[in-house]
Amino acid sequence: MSTPVPAVTSQVIAIRPGRPLAGAVTVDGSKNAALPLVAAAAALLRPVRLDNVPASSDVQTLLDLLGQAGWNIAHPVGDSHSVLALPSEAPATPDDLGEAASSIRASYYLVPALIALCGRARLPWPGGCRIGDRGMEQHFKVYEAFGDRVRVDDRGYVVEAGKAVRGTVSLVLPFRSRGATIAAVLRAVVAGTPLRLGQPNLSPEVLGVLNALMTVGYECRAGERVLTLAPPASVSDDMPVWQVPGDKIEAGTLACAVAATGGTARIEGVHGPDVAPLVAALHRMGIPTSDEPETLVVHGRDTQPTGRPLRAMATLAPNGLDADFEPPLLGLALGFPGTHLFSDPINPGRHCNLIPQLVRMGGEITELSSTECRFTGPQRLTGAGVEATDIRTGSALMVAGLTARGVTTLGGVDQIRRGHADLPGKLLALGADICEVTP
């Protein structure tokens, strides 16, 4: 198994412990940031170029959906990571998207763009990771605040543009929903009206959309209590060029993998503040890191376990721990001393996916509720056959498999590729003993 292979492309991969990970690797563009940026480009109804677009399958699906709806999606010659989004003069009807949109959750980002192009959006209920009920009630309240009409049925939902709203649209979100915040921002773009949004989500992904809009003249102020957005006084004929930021979650997962093996490696292409909550968790466990420009360096060989309990609490609060950091951190913390508490109230089904897989590897984890668990480390896992039931469960199992005794076989790799074009290949580049399983 130690013979290097160029890439991991099988539906099942095998992982076993080996030497500490080392070297340097560059993360792809962020799936979570690319999806709303693609939708924002479409909502402008003008040509936009996006660079550093990841090749993850969810992003490709969203681009395909835009193509079906009437946008022209193209790549510059010789540059597969850049995308040109060009609105068509002959749009398709919204119903043409059909069930293709049900395979990803981010299909709901397309509602404002479809309203701009067709005056109406009909979409199936979103799919994506099966990690609990993540309803769209807040999205619908956003559209109703703009005067839109919303209808739902067993197949999905319809949003139809109502009479144009005059003046500033004001509303307050009951919680800091990323999806509803982006829906409000993009609907304001399409309506051409100012927005005043209370209790917004201020994650890097939302701020990325706001920064992109400011490059085309929008005025924005983003505070913890209120976000305001105003349309530009004039529109330039120049094509905007937006950059998808490096994937903070991929960087965090790789950092956990390096730390789990006691390795030292450079993870390049990530903005330091975006991974600050994860780095704080590493430091609490005694794992040193250093922050260089657009690079996170993990010094796992200098780790001095503190034994301090880790409280990994996912939150939507500004500068809080992103819920997608929690699973790989959990896979890492199993090997560190202390009684650790993990909580993810944002995705109530995620623990139900991950914990049974870790138990199959010998993990002893107490589920306190559907959103909280506790365990005491260090624990030594044993390789077993496990399944990536969602993107982050798969990445956490990779981290766990790097230190488990024996071979861990991981199925459901297509789930991981929804969020990462080639996470196994990046681990391989750092020296992980990971390969295809021959059918």
Structure description:
By secondary structure, the chain is α+β, with helices and mostly antiparallel strands. The protein is built from 13 helices and 23 strands. The strands form 6 sheets. The chain has a 4-stranded mixed beta sheet with strand order 21-22-1-23, with helices on one face. Helix 4 (137-145) runs parallel beside helix 5 (178-191). The longest helix is centred in the middle third of the chain and has 14 residues, at 178-191. It is globular. Residues 1-9 have low confidence and may be disordered.
Biggest beta sheet attributes: 4 strands, mixed
Spatial order of the strands in the main sheet? Answer: 21-22-1-23
Uncertain runs are 1-9
Tell me what portion of residues adopts beta-strand conformation.
15-25%
- Summarize model confidence as the mean pLDDT: 91
Shape: globular
Total DSSP helices: 13
Rounded to the nearest angstrom, the distance between the terminal CA atoms is 15 Å
Gyration radius, to the nearest Å? Answer: 22 Å
Q: How many strands in all?
A: 23
Helix content: 25-40%
Structural class: alpha+beta
Could you outline the blueprint of secondary structure elements for this entry?
Blueprint: E1 13-16, E2 22-26, H1 31-43, E3 48-51, H2 57-69, E4 71-74, E5 83-87, H3 111-118, E6 120-124, H4 137-145, E7 149-152, E8 156-160, E9 169-172, H5 178-191, E10 195-198, H6 204-214, E11 219-222, E12 226-230, E13 241-243, H7 248-260, E14 264-268, H8 276-285, E15 289-292, E16 295-299, E17 311-313, H9 326-333, E18 338-343, H10 350-360, E19 366-367, E20 372-377, E21 385-387, H11 391-401, E22 408-411, H12 413-419, H13 423-429, E23 433-436
